[in-house]
Amino acid sequence: MNNFLQDVTESLAKSHKSIPSKYFYDEKGSRIFQEIMTLEAYYLPRCEMEILEQSAAAILSHFNDQNMDFIDLGAGDGSKMISFLRQVHHKLNAPSYIPMDISPEILKVNQNLIQNAIPNLDILAIPGDYFVSTHQIKQRPNPMVVMYMGSNIGNFRLEEAVEFLRFINDFLNKGDFLLMGVDLKKDPSTIQAAYNDKEGVTKKFNLNLLERINRELGANFNLDLFDHYGTYNPSSGEAQSYLISLEEQLISIAEKKYHFEKFETIHTEISRKFSLVELNDMGHESGFTWNKHFLDSKAFFSLSLFRK
Ligand code: AVI
């Protein structure tokens, strides 16, 4: 049985139904996510961009080596990094940019874009799962900055987030850095609005999961009979997304039937928000010895720099 089928059927058979959020990002889902990133309500990319532009010099002032490797995990098309990498290239003599992404196609776009913008920058693009790809650069002698941007850390459960930071910490050598883009706790209504845009793009993003299951696994979800529900809990810092069954219904996937009560939920995503204190604690817990946070003008988002 393929992984997608197995993951979907197992998680829909549970009493609290869910679908793992990594399945959002097929070709169509990735396109819809690009659209989310342009939404007025979805403030995250704009804030991160502002910090990358405004605080690049302050961030770079912590790096003393000329030949550092800047490893971008889940790099995407690289467009957000151009201005920062320009400043990296200007300040350091011989930096290398090492974008990693599961999609080889997007990495080609990344490499072309960055190379055209900064012709002399050394670039080594590595496609694949970064739990594997990081091994390929283990032998390089250069000091490292691992970059994990875009609030991706927020999509882990809390214990998984700490585990992930430990994995990065194990990979780094003493004195190396992690630079991580993190969405901060703020006025709950701002977060609530970011995951419930009036244009309906986040709804489309969630419903695409069901469409993908129909397309790839031959299921028979009727998208009109499900709605998107996004909610934010300011005490836990978790934005949660659900699909809600609007009727009692039976869905077939690979010859099995799944029963949905009216208003039964499918949990699709956690987007966790952090306080600076929580980030400090997570850094210590995962073995980092020093950290500093760089915020945008509204203090919505942090680029947090951790040193091993
Ligand atoms: C990729 N990730 C950080 C986004 C987030 O904010 O959790 C995915 C997303 N889901 C709905 N809107 C955006």
UniProtKB/TrEMBL annotation:
Question: What Gene Ontology molecular function terms does this protein carry?
Answer: L-histidine N(alpha)-methyltransferase activity
Q: Top EC class per UniProt?
A: transferase
- The residues covered by the Histidine-specific methyltransferase SAM-dependent domain are 5-307
User: Superkingdom of this entry's organism?
Assistant: Bacteria
EC numbers:
2.1.1.44
> Pfam families of this UniProt entry?
Methyltransf_33
- Which GO annotations describe the biological process of this protein? methylation
Against InterPro entries, the record matches this protein to: EgtD (IPR035094), EgtD_Methyltrsf_superfamily (IPR051128), MeTrfase_dom (IPR019257), MeTrfase_EgtD-like (IPR017804), SAM-dependent_MTases_sf (IPR029063)
Q: Which UniProt keywords apply?
A: Methyltransferase, Transferase
Which NCBIfam families does this entry report, sorted A to Z? egtD_ergothio
Q: Entry's PANTHER family?
A: ERGOTHIONEINE BIOSYNTHESIS PROTEIN 1
Question: What's the protein here called?
Answer: L-histidine N(Alpha)-methyltransferase
